[in-house]
Write a structure and sequence with these properties.
single chain; 233 residues; alpha+beta; two-stranded antiparallel sheet; 7 helices; 38% helix
Length: 233
């Protein structure tokens, strides 16, 4: 399963983590770019390196397949592009993205409780929402050999421009809220230095407006009232 190696967020994780469960995974082609851009321009390149260095290695995980004996507690399998860990012996149940009685998501990071907690509480959903926001237009309009084509679908009606703007507004609000929660969480839970690489540590100006447009420094702190220093999600 080497195709997943060094990937912070997998396309198959986005629907579940974002809450948009019906997203077509094959259309989420910008996941890696969105994640890397967000780290380099907001969360910090050093934090990006720390996250990648601590990713758990599941290259030896097997693809889920029903067997007579089932899986043992602690076995890791790959199912629909996502890693799951068995919660019991003789586990013959199929992994589920909605029920975690027999399986749960395998830890994203190796032996790093603080990063795993951050991922489950905030970072996974935050990055997934950014991917959804970036791909909204691509989910309906495609580039074909005859130019741009619009997807109508069976039993679906295209939303109005008003509805489209409302959906985007709500996604943007969710991104901003999740960032605020994530930022506060890392500030308040950094007693062991786990989040020292995060660009926002010690720079409260980042918190007041949502996401940083550029690295916060003393000049940013002095001009924190200026909207030009930030981008509002």
């Amino acid at each position: 399963m080497t195709r997943f190696k060094d990937k912070i967020l997998l396309p198959e994780e986005v629907p579940c983590l974002s809450g948009f469960n019906d997203l077509p995974v094959c259309d989420l082609s910008t996941v890696c770019d969105v994640v890397e851009f967000e780290f380099l321009h907001c969360l910090g390149s050093k934090f990006f390196d720390q996250i990648k260095e601590n990713l758990a290695d599941y290259s030896e995980a097997v693809e889920f397949c029903l067997t007579d004996d089932g899986y043992s507690e602690g076995d890791v399998v790959e199912y629909k592009g996502v890693y799951f860990i068995s919660l019991k012996d003789e586990n013959k149940e199929e992994p589920s993205f909605e029920s975690f009685l027999c399986w749960e998501f395998a830890p994203k990071f190796k032996d790093n409780e603080c990063l795993n907690d951050l991922w489950c509480r905030h970072l996974g959903r935050y990055l997934s929402l950014l991917v959804v926001r970036k791909n909204i237009a691509n989910l309906q309009v495609k580039i074909k050999d005859k130019g741009l084509v619009k997807y109508v679908g069976e039993g679906y009606v295209n939303v109005s421009e008003k509805d489209r703007k409302s959906i985007i507004f709500n996604i943007d609000a969710s991104i901003k809220m999740k960032f605020e929660l994530m930022h506060t969480y890392m500030i308040e839970n950094n007693s062991n230095g786990c989040f020292d690489a995060y660009k926002g540590i010690g720079n409260s100006c980042c918190k007041s407006c949502g996401r940083c447009k550029k690295q916060c420094d003393n000049s940013c702190l002095k001009s924190k009232k200026s909207r030009n220093n930030y981008v509002i999600c």
